[in-house]
Design a protein that fits this description.
single chain, 411 residues, alpha+beta, Alpha-Beta Plaits, 2 domains, eight-stranded mixed beta sheet, four-stranded antiparallel beta sheet, globular, binds zinc ion
């Protein structure tokens, strides 16, 4: 394990020194220049390791291929992904990564904030291990630089240990994962792998192969305006229709009332006046039929609102955002079978859980490449309290190597 720590920790500390905060208000991909800087650094690093084919696409995707070991050229190409950007929710500039070697299990002060092992059993478990946290002024960037470090560490490990079986390994670092804007530019034509894994999860053992089916619906209300003094029995107020529609959505099926496998409706944005109003509603459900049922229910709610506002109209326009990756992953069972075996072989207990959101892996699965997600050892993503368990990042790197070996040997 020491070797994997040495191959990942210095890299991680270097990567978090790049400010790669993405910006969802920018239309271009990548949305920020800092992502280019990290992409260029990684490309140079890959070339430095002897992977001459490393390249960066027009939209800042880093793609490189570690060649197969002699005799394993026919093994399937397997891809590993991590994202370059960090969330814009908290600053990622001038990150001061603080290494806590042999953590003593006490409360950790981060400026005005603190990490408390009494309220976080997960942190308490790290006693005696090495963790990395911030000074409380920024996020850490373990999401997803711990994923990048784990992949790069695995690549160097394989180069140092040519005796380990490996097929061709594809390394893919993507921009703008946090904004969701990167994937439309995903260079599918360059990707050879037909099975991929994202390293973008949290605690040791985390394995994610299911996510929501996601729909976004725009409900447009058309009212009938009248002079307010003469409105009795004539006016239909579109603003009030939108508000009525929003409160018609069942509160027991909202994000704040659900967890685990429960789906929900979420009114996200509302705007308008007496004549025209619009309400955006997100629908989430792990079950596709469940999501479709909710979409159909929006039509019923629309009719119910119309009935309360004679003369007013409500029209629902719903679109799929992404689908549960489970179906695509199940079509190719060996993707999960090999992953489970790699967990077992490296002694990591599997903690499978559904993702209440989407990932690049979900979109990639939809595009035909099944892509489950694996832990990186990071916690408290998108916050100043973000921290990383170094042995867990090392374990992710080791698991990557084992997974590559299993694919090569066809076991
Ligand atoms: Zn992430």
């Amino acid at each position: 394990m020491k070797e994997f720590t040495e191959l990942t920790l210095p890299r991680f500390l270097k990567y978090v020194s790049f400010c790669t905060t993405s910006d969802r208000h920018v239309e271009a991909t990548p949305s920020t220049c800092g992502q280019w800087d990290l992409a260029n650094y990684l490309k140079d690093e890959l070339v430095g390791l002897g992977i001459q084919n490393a390249e960066i696409t027009d939209h800042c995707y880093v793609i490189a291929r570690l060649p197969a070991k002699q005799g394993f050229e026919n093994a399937p190409t397997v891809g590993f992904l991590a994202h370059l950007d960090t969330s814009s929710e908290v600053s990622g500039k001038n990150v001061k990564a603080i290494i806590e070697e042999n953590y003593n299990g006490a409360l950790i002060k981060l400026g005005a904030l603190s990490l408390d092992p009494l309220t976080s059993p997960d942190l308490a478990k790290q006693k005696g291990r090495t963790i990395v946290h911030t000074d409380g002024a920024t996020l850490l960037g373990a999401d997803d630089k711990a994923g990048i470090a784990a992949i790069m560490g695995a690549v160097e490990f394989l180069l140092k240990h040519p005796e380990i079986a490996r097929g061709e390994v594809e390394i893919i670092f993507t921009p703008d994962e946090e904004t969701g804007k990167g994937l439309p530019f995903f260079p599918m034509e360059k990707i050879k792998a037909r099975a991929c894994y994202t390293l973008d999860g949290g605690p040791l053992g985390e394995l994610e192969s299911e996510c929501f089916n996601a729909w976004s619906a725009k409900v447009r209300f058309t009212g009938k305006s009248m002079h307010l003094g003469d409105a009795r029995g004539k006016m239909a107020n579109a603003a009030l229709m939108a508000a009525t529609f929003a409160v018609t959505l069942p509160r027991t099926e909202s994000p704040e009332a659900t967890d685990g496998y429960y789906g929900y409706y979420c009114p996200l944005e509302i705007s308008g006046d007496v004549e025209n109003a619009e309400l955006e509603v997100f629908i989430r459900d792990f079950d596709k039929q469940g999501a479709e049922k909710r979409v159909a229910a929006l039509e019923l709610f629309a009719r119910a609102v119309e009935a309360q506002f004679p003369g007013g109209k409500a029209a629902v326009d719903a679109k799929v955002q992404y689908l549960n990756m489970k179906e695509k992953i199940n079509e190719k069972p060996e993707v999960l079978e090999k992953l489970r075996q790699a967990f077992i072989n490296t002694g990591v207990e599997i903690r499978q859980k559904p993702i209440r959101g989407g990932t690049d892996g979900a979109r990639l699965s939809e595009m035909g490449i099944p892509t489950p997600n694996i832990f990186t050892g990071g916690r408290n993503f998108h916050s100043r309290l973000e921290w990383l368990s170094v042995p867990e990042m090392a374990a992710a790197s080791r698991l990557t190597v084992e997974l590559i070996r299993l694919w090569a040997e066809g076991v």
